[in-house]
Amino acid sequence: MKHVLFKKAVLAVFAFLPIWVFAQQTITGKVTDASSGEPLFGVTVLVKGTTTGALTDFDGNFSVEASADATLVFSYIGYSTIEVLASDASTVQMKADVTNLDEVVVTGLATSIKRSNLANNISTISSESLTGTTTGSTLDGALYGKLTGVNINSAGGAPGGQTAMRLRGISSLSGNNQPLFIVDGVYISNVQLTNGSSVASGANAGREEGGSNRVSDINPEDIESIEVLKGASAAAIYGTRANAGVVIITTKRGKAGKTVVKFDQDVGFNTIQNYAGRRQFTSTTVASTFGAAEVPIFEAARDAGRIFNYEEELYGETGLITESRFSISGGNEKTKFYFNASKRDEDGIMKRTGYGRNSLRLNLDHRFNDKLKVGFSSNYVNSTAERGPVGNENNGGFSVGYNLALVTADWEDLFPDENGVYPDGRFAATNIILNRDLIDNEEEINRYIQGANFEYKAITNENFRLKFTANGGLDYFQAKTFVYIPEFQQTQRANQNGFVSAGNTNSLQLNYNAFAVLDFTTNNKISINGQFGISYLNFESDAIINQTTELFPQQTNLAQGNSFAVFQRLTEEEEFGIIAQSTANWDDKIIATAGVRFDKSNLNGDPNKFFAFPRASLAINVANFDFWNVEDVNLLKLRVAYGETGSSARFGSLFTPLGPTSIGGVPGLGLPTVGQNNQSAQLGDANLEPEISQEIEYGIDFSFLNGKIGLELTGYKRDVKNLIYPFSSIPLSSGFANEIRNDFDLSNTGFEIALNANPISNSNINWNTTLNWWKNEAEVESLGVGEFQPSGEGFSLTFGSSFIREGETATSLAANIGGVPTIIGDAAPDFEMSWFNQISLFKDFDLTFLWHWKKGGDVLNLTKLLSDFGGVTPDLDDPDVIANPRFGTFGAAGYIEDGTYVRLREVGLFYTLPTELDWFERVRVGVSGKNLITITDYSSYDPETSAFGPSGLSQGIEVSPFPSAKQVYFHIGFTF
């Protein structure tokens, strides 16, 4: 009996062996570009219906285990996805698709959709477009000019300095105009940190210190892709955090297949973009400006060759930049990993300024079985910044830029003598060289971001699938700031006798989302996707600034002073949301989506009241209908979408804070008094409700010649209701500086055009080009009060300021002319345009460049106003200026300038060495530059800087910023 069974078993093995071999054979092949024949590296090859897959190597080769009758799916960014029988996959050609119609785009917290079915204009950017041309010091800086509907301004050019990103115009008057940033499902903080330097003179606010915003901690090289939800119609599913839009960042992850090791080294240099210039004096002009007594002093310095150009002395350094990156990624069908370590050191264009960032990232993904998979994203960042005595400090003796323009003459010898003693400034109580050399302004951040995601496929069959997902994580950072002004500094001798400010901020953000997601397909080509879930956010921060004055000689310790002050701000924000969304798709012809989110927050007057944020959209793919017979047009899509988002009040707006008081020497608490820089003297409003954005977006998309040309046309109108703002025009007899109001409406109207094309594609040249054009107008529709100058949004109307008037733009600039507040300009540009190009030459060379044109947008050039007052503006001897002095003739209106510019944002040329190298898979060398060319009539440092940073309305107000830099890099990269 055993012998018979053995023979049957042997026969069975031999009978089924050919089938088993047939099912398990190794399929090999090569993937190339259909037009140029160039091998494609990194193409994903997946056995359809399974998780088995591989990636092509640098020669386009792949190897995957599959049966000959299996179907292989080939997908690659920028190319149309194709399906090929495994038996026919020895040579696979993929066609470029610059429209990325097969690209999957996130549309909800747990779902995604093909770009060809989108009803919103969602901008996406790949890692290649983000950092493939040149190195970027910060994430937001790397996005300049690459996305429609996105305006980016900096507070100055200090390394690692503050950058403001604004999507589709104004979202708030006093709140956050920056979008919500989400990295691998983690809501991350993007706060601007203050360091206390404004208290050194009490002459400005913390917003004007030029401190960095925290998205700068994210290493751009870690990013795989970015999706930008620019309006409420797309971002409604994110609720009360999405009024200014949402930026969704996905970092790089490992892929099954061969382990890939990379090392990249960049070396670069920072130099100033543009000098404002200094007046060239003669004895005559010295006499007319400074008096006859100054002439012999000037002539003696001139004859001795001691005329200095202090602008070049301050900002003429060539800063060295180095960045090293090491990554290793790979895995198998079960477990995948990605690890990256990077170190960046960047010296500024002024001595003792610079920025550094050390980053470690580990991303892990594990699939337990066909149903369950988990993923983790871990990122540790240590960043440091030295910004020097910069920012708008209003002549308190701190800011080198302010005092360079106003109170420094180039024949003053401000350098130390042989004993290291700095002379006093003769025209005001400051020496800018001493400030540069001896004032400390430092920042250090230690940050840890941990994300996790979970997916369980509960039901999977032909027509119905149900899965459960959860994601979230934490973002924790500790920030230390330090400012030191020596007691012998000239201003300090007459004021505080030395100043030390040491700040410590601890911030923790927690969030999680949990969803049930179902997909149902009917027999009549209708598929339905639905998601239902919850979202929870908890943000806490504790910011303390300790300050001391009256320092003991040469001491920087907080304890070594005689006068102390402590400032602390505690915040806690908690939000809970319930989300439901459903999408119905009829054969990729008609796609309809409807959803709603209900949010409650402790930042609202009633913390238990839910506010609804609905959304609905419709996309009609006309070219997919049977009647369509225009072969050259493979996509014609009509789309319309509506959505609402919100923004709650800032923490502390609901209540009137108590302040320390003393009556008869007895300490206690009471209402705060109105005093200089006392921002706590605010009358709160316990009934505040969120600001609400209501947007309707409409558009039409085309794709021609099988994806060779793509065109997107988008229009929108976004109404922002019940804006929350502090109103300062209340009687001081009330005991308060301002009150919180909730009765301001504005609208943003805009249009966006995106044109993508692949005009040339052959064996020698492959050229992809993108042309973006966009504009936005923000108009004040209604006010609960009369016209007013927003609190903290500019300076007095004597020198020009932001101004709110019903029927005017929300970005108006105004000044008193004849005692009447008069609109003198508009900071918003007429339009912006960018032109991005990627050109492959003869397979081994890659040329990339990005031009950016901003047309219009007025800038209030208060740097020139200061230098006019100081008598050092370069054109003061021009006959026209003499006949019509700017301030004397026009007041602040004399300093409004057109901020138009054309700028070469990025340019890079790379060469890939032949692959016949023993040690390396690939070696790539190149040279690149950022902001190398700027064409503008603007007469100061940079028309895109703003003194007031990312929050509020203020744009187009320049006050002696740290000048912007241009950069040149040399690159070499190895892949093992």
UniProtKB/TrEMBL annotation:
Main localization of the protein described in the UniProt heading: membrane
Signal peptide: 1-23
Localization per Swiss-Prot or TrEMBL: Cell outer membrane
GO biological process terms on file: siderophore transmembrane transport
InterPro entries reported in the protein's UniProt record: Beta-barrel_TonB, Beta-barrel_TonB_sf, CarboxyPept-like_regulatory, Plug_dom, Plug_dom_sf, TonB-dep_OMP_SusC/RagA, TonB-dep_OMP_SusC/RagA_CS, TonB-dep_rcpt-like
TonB-dependent receptor plug domain segment(s): 116-246
Gene3D superfamilies: Carboxypeptidase-like, regulatory domain, TonB-dependent receptor, beta-barrel domain, TonB-dependent receptor, plug domain
Pfam families linked: CarbopepD_reg_2, Plug, TonB_dep_Rec_b-barrel
GO molecular function, a single term: siderophore uptake transmembrane transporter activity
Membrane topology: Multi-pass membrane protein
Gene Ontology annotations for the cellular component aspect, listed alphabetically: cell outer membrane
The protein's name in its UniProt record: SusC/RagA family TonB-linked outer membrane protein
Organism: Spongiivirga citrea
